[in-house]
Specification:
The chain is an alpha+beta fold. It has one domain. 50% of the residues lie in helices and 22% in strands. It has a 4-stranded antiparallel sheet with strand order 1-2-3-4, with no helix packed on it. The radius of gyration is 20 Å and the shape is elongated. The two termini are 30 Å apart. The mean pLDDT is 82. InterPro entries: LHFPL. Keywords: Membrane, Transmembrane, Transmembrane helix. Its main location: membrane.
């Protein structure tokens, strides 16, 4: 397997991949904010939440659902700012993953990444970050 990348390019490709994976895991994990509500520990992120309150209409009370899950719909995300954060963070993770996978393919395929492609990928990576 020939590569058109220098040693610095190969290091960049692997570090890009590790950072993209860490960003995606952070995006999907619901542990951005930790706290307590109704004497139960709760946590949530932009995409998922754990131990959240739900209105029980039959008993006219609020009960805690002690499990992790996604929001039921995009509109169920608590605020407009939180929705914007979800979209921007998701797009950033997608861009980082795209550049990282392209860079890893450049480690295995010769003439895939030229100097210009590397600069464009760096710009996309900057935008994703």
């Amino acid at each position: 397997m020939a590569s058109s990348l220098t040693c610095a390019g190969i290091v960049w490709a692997f570090l890009s991949f590790l950072c993209a994976v860490a960003s995606c895991v952070g995006f999907f994990m619901p542990y951005w904010l930790l706290g307590s509500q109704l004497e139960k520990s709760v946590s949530f992120g932009t995409f998922r939440r754990c131990s959240y309150p739900v209105r029980d209409e039959s008993r006219q009370t609020t009960v805690m659902v002690e499990q992790c899950g996604r929001y039921a719909s995009f509109q169920a995300i608590p605020s407009a700012e939180w929705r914007i954060c979800t979209v921007v963070t998701g797009l950033g993770c997608g861009l980082l993953l795209l550049v990282a996978l392209t860079a890893l393919m450049g480690c295995c395929v010769s003439e895939l990444i030229s100097r210009t492609v590397g600069r464009v990928a760096g710009g996309i990576q900057f935008l994703g970050g």
